[in-house]
## 1
Amino acid sequence: TDGGSYQFGNLFSLSPTTLYAVFGIADSADKSFTPLLLGILRGVQPNIAKPVTDADIILDTHLDQTVTVNVTGPPNTTGGHDAFVDLDLGQSGAIPLARVTQNSDPFHLTFTHLPAAAGQGFVFVDEYGSFVNGQVTAPVTTYLRRVFNDLGSGVTLGPLLPFPVLRQTGPDVISWSLGEGPVQPNLQQLNLGDGTATLNTSWTVVLPGDARQIALPGPVRTRLQPGTHGFSLTVAVSPGLDFAHWNFTDLGETSWTAFAFSSGSFTVP
């Protein structure tokens, strides 16, 4: 209700916290919710000594914008999207706004009920891959973009990285290929996990973008017990990366604009 109260009984952090509220129409028939208004309150300081009683949230932002997204360079036209957009509040966090899951159009997405947030940033994430039972599954290619401009003229995401295609899947050599496309990775990571419970063998290797195979080092190969072993391959675009001087900050999604993922397994006799 207008002027009604709300309560969080167990905030997990004593750091300054951002609270937000979304007002909309709840349809009891189909359990849907249509958002109409957004309110944000930054810098709420939790206190273990006394309750916070002055955290009023004003619903002053209309969620009435529709944004068309053009997707360039999907690896094929038979997959589907699982796409998100968040409102970026900088050090105050991020607010999830909308999600689109579809396999009807590989080249376009439509986000509804967004704010006209002048001066704020939006973070768009599009995951494109095989579409099974309404969900995107591996192999998956992902594109990330932060937008600070007016969204009225639309947004372009991409080009997307091609899917890694696994060729030889161990146990001595793992090889793969990448399809043609307007963008190629400059960083790759292969992660190997042991499928047995008796010996926890794992190995990770960081490779340049043009690598297409890797031989397992002798000490790793000899430690692999008979049975099934899973591995994954992530290829990424990390702007400004100098591979000869990479560091661990280059190995996370916060440093990438696009990445693609595939997984496989092999059996040691």
## 2
Amino acid sequence: NTRVNLVLAIACAGLLVSLRIWFVASARSQPFRQTATLGLAFGLPLLAAAAGLMAYNQARFGSPFDFGYEYLITGPTIPEDPSRRTSTDYVIPNTFQYLIRPPEIQAEFPYIVVPWIKNDMWPNILRLPRDYFYTEPVASLLITVPLIGFGLLAAGRKGWLWLNGFAQPDRIPAGDRGLLNWLFVVLAGNIAFTVPVLLMFTQNTYRYLADLTPPAVLLSVLVFAGLQTAPSGPERSFWRICWTLGAFLAPIFGILIAVTGYQNAFERLNPGLYNRLVALFPPW
């Protein structure tokens, strides 16, 4: 799997890293040769990987930009009309799937499950577009990785404080502050280029969120760190509770969801251990 949907995010991160190398070298008055060496050390592997992938596409599919999607043998996941592989028609249902749809909560171990989606599991107000494939397991990233959900709330609060002119005390050294700001931009740019591709794609599945989860978690960490100087002590305590709760629940939810996975592989391949876990963790 080439994950070609990440090409824009990778290009954005590569550009920002290259600019960072250039700005730091200029600030330190480094010789051009040293700056160029650093830039090539970073950029050449990316260019080599892109060139190799394009050469592979040319050899196998007859075009460097043909990634072979139409040759998949996964049945209804491929629209008959190639122009329908991506469309703004899919944005609303995909938004519901990735950000709103809750996981399934059950009384027995593993308690939290990401189910396969059936026709009757959609709100009546949503009208699904043609060629839209949605049956694979999906649940809200904001709920199943609660650190990201709390981080989104924290980002909203931080934005509100900024719009209202609240200047937070800055205890970070100038050099570290610039690096953190740059990291914030890189992570935000990665998300900004990843989300639209996911939302406009003809199908959705929980594993696609792996493209988004790492930068979203790191960005949430930076946002929470910025609220350590919130206007009041009780508010700071609230955000610390949110941080602790989100960081504590995220790995637990991940482990519980992985127990069933896509095809109940754990239960099928190791039923003895699975049944012992069910006995160890009684129903609610």
